[in-house]
Amino acid sequence: MINKKAFKIMVMSTALLLLVVCLSYARTDHREYKDATPAECRDCHGGAGIMSNHGGPFFVKEHRLLAQKAGSNCADCHQQSFCLDCHKGGNIDSDLRKSLSRTGEPMPTTHRSGWISIHPIKAKDDGSQSCYRCHEARFCSDCHNKIRNKGSMNIKSHQAIGNTQRFVFTADHAAEARRNLQSCQGCHPDAVVCSQCHNMKSGKPFRSR
Amino acid sequence: MRLIRLLVILLALACVPLFSYAAEVKMTSSTQYLWYQDYVADKGQDEIAQYLRLNVTKLDKEGKINFYSYGRITKQVSSSDDVQGRLYYGYVDYRDVFKDHLDLKAGRTFVNAAAVSGTMDGLYLDFKNFGPIGVTVFGGREVIFQDKKEIGSGNALAGGSIYLDTVKNTHVEVSYGKTYRDSEVARENVGLDFSTTPFDITNFYGRVKYDTKAEKYNELLFGATLAPLKDLILRGEYYQSYPTFDAASIYNIFAVDKYQEKSIAAEYYLTKNYRVSVKYAKEDFNGDATADVYEVGFLAKPIKDFTLNVSFEKRNGYAGQLSGIRLFGQYRIDKASILAGIDYDDFRREASREGSAKKYWAGINYEFSKIMSAVVRVEQNYDYNYDHSYQGYTAININY
Does A199 touch chain B (CB under 8 A)? Predict the structure, then answer.
């Protein structure tokens, strides 16, 4: 049985040691490596460390954790325009890989060909959260509210009656709304259409949270 | 009026070095002519854009005070729309206000934390190197870009974080952020991030983001990276998200489902110039709604200055099917960089349209000198909406 005094000394010494180790740490300034290529970076960061995914095949999706660290090294090499040209549609460095959107702004390369048709599929990946990292919710309604002939959109949960603006809600619509509620906002920013059926008079309440 | 103000500010700031200690000015200008198909207006559009990035560095003797700015003005020549403008950022960056202990950014700047991100007109402070601990604090008017201009007023964001950087590349950070819409609190989040590399071959990372208004975990992420060989990197990840809405949104009363994704990925460098990558993700939208996503990629640099990149993606399940291949190459000859690519996607949306989309594109960047270069990019699309849709741009870039 270790006596209390010895135990206290052990705890205090361990804490002191940890403190010394922590205090002796200093972050490396990477500004002098600014012109290095990712291949050269791997000379130091070849393992599973911080550099492993920099410029890698999945880096576009994975970089946000690194970029959102307080005190990250990103600014040692990159200007903010490097971020904003992708996230906010700029093009000062003329990245030739990027296509133009319907508004003439360059889109990140994650936006595939035929993007207007394909985006409802790709937007589902990661629960649509990656869309909202660059776009406000009103970005969707800006386009969807102007769509000519909305009946042709053929949304699974509500099918148009002929080529009209009248819709029939299918049995799927409750489940679809729960899975894709953020996309409902795209056409119905104020949800007035929901309350036409779901109101106190109809006796069809929402199944709330 | 806003545009004139923007130009006056940029020009005034360009004069700052005249009154400063041996300041260095670096300017990048890109004058572009663009043409593209506007799906909503149902017509082709032509546009002129002028980008300007102005950096004035070493404003003080020690080179700690710098100014960075970047903006754009555009005019659609094929419509009667007004000239539109954006100031992406314009801030003074003062490093080491107190030696090694305080960095400051003042003006319009982009802030990025787990709890809140955005562009703001305000102040960012980083109290750093207090042992392994640092603290950031920021806040200001939030700037939202939409339709090629700034919109809204009464928006603001504020936040901060406490972070610990210590041995084994360990970073632990707790962040807090709030956004305001029309002066009312719209979102309030708390984020916890961690990353550590206990051994050279292993890295663990994660994130927890909690929406305090909705009282829900908005995001959970846990992952591990393993490099059993120098040229092999394996990754496994679990991700979960739960949609939340602005506090005033009617959508807050609706029930929603969480989204879950489990993924594994590998990348392997066959040699220094050849790399293969594979990834598989299982997406779960709750109930019987799931999807499988497979990705395979190949990168080759068979000769000097030539890079070839091929990737294939296949997605099956909820929301639709997608099979797509993307191929692009890049070659540098003397002063010219030439890039070209082909994309082909076959898609099938649930209960809706199906078809294929093809994209052929090519571009060249020619450097006349260190100061001046010219860019041309053209692209032809064949897809569900267009028999063919031609787009591109040409640019004259100046750097000095």
Answer: no
